[in-house]
Specification:
Layout: H1 29-35, E1 67-71, E2 74-77, H2 78-109, H3 116-130, H4 136-147, H5 151-176, H6 180-201, H7 207-218, E3 221-229, H8 232-242, H9 247-254, E4 268-272, H10 281-289, E5 298-301, E6 304-314, H11 321-355, H12 361-394
Antiparallel strand pairs: 1-2, 3-4, 3-6, 5-6
Helix pairs in contact: 2-6, 2-12, 3-6, 4-5, 6-11, 7-11
Amino acid sequence: MKRSLGAVVIGCVALSAGCAAQPARDASPVQNLIAAPAPAGSHSSDSASTVTTTPPPPANIPFDDRVIARINGQPVTMGELMKPLLEAHGLQILTGLVQLDLLKQEARADHAPVSPEDVRHEREMALGKMFKDADAKEQDQLDEAEQKGQTADAEKLRAQISSDREGLLTQYLENQHFSRAEFDLKMEINAYLRKKAERLLTGKITDAMVEKEFNVEYGETRDVRYIQLANMQQVAEARQRLKTEDFGDVAASYSGDARTGNSKLKGMLSGISLQTPGLPKTFKEMAFSVELGQVSETLNLEGHYFILKPEKKYPPKAVKFDKIKDSLRKSMFDRLVQSLMEQLSSNVGQEVVQKLQIEDPILKKQYEQFMSRQQSEIRDRAKMNEQFKKEREAHSLTTQPAATEPAAADSATSAPAATAPASAAPAPAAPAARP
């Protein structure tokens, strides 16, 4: 697995290192030995054998004035170091620390502590997701060794996988200009979010939910026709033609998709399921939510407009529900935990916005600039939505089913690696997370 990392995409909370003064450290054993008086009976022959030490700085020296280095005898102070650090990363680090502190407060109130083992487990899961393709071969070898009871080989493979992942993580963080301290803080935040999400969801997945999941994973497939259109004017024209013409004929004349928009296929997609790759999730969901023979609402996907008509469905695959229901329940639980973690993260981020009071002038200026940008983005999205509505009305579509707009990070800015919950009055949240 010794290879270049390449492009790794991961979607995560602003992190931080803190700026509080550190307590004075005790002198090291070597320093104690040097500073101690010579034992009785020992002799110091001359000045060349005399060791001198630099007296420690006064205890009351201001933090910013502490000398941390010298160049050509000139001091470099802590204040000189901290100013560019705050300007570069201060706001993200501060909001990350504040979010972690809020989560710790909640955990203490709920009597649900997060242990170092929880944080370690979160880190391992994150690395496994980030680099699962890179160490797939070694992971297969590990699984085989465990199945055969080859304990020594399995331990060596685990150590190799762990070492390789750490190397890949180093490459990734360097490429993203992201420190290990920030990454570790993100892992701690995620550990608290996961602990809370798991606690809230435990016992909430019913047998009926698992059976529904079974129908999604192993259930029916459908033949669906669709029309792809370039703008709302074409949508209006196509819907008018559908009142008197066959859906397939209209699809053949309008669709811009070369795979299906022709006289032979007439917009047909055969045997698609909710798991079919290469199709947008919202497209598949609409294909399975509309009754057979009915024409769907207009679906807007990144500026392309679609009208769907499911025509035929096929029964589920021959898989025994009882044999896989436990694994389905676990996969559902894991997926719902991840979704709830994102929601909880968004909630915490918005709580930071409401409660955080910044006193440092550098950080306060960054925060005001961030909030101004978020408010501007919210206004821009509102204008786009209004324009979309006016375009529909201009083409007499107010009596037709409303076009479904693509799911976005909504009008609220999510907290680190989170999706903001729907709300009537969108509110900005804490600065977006890295990585």
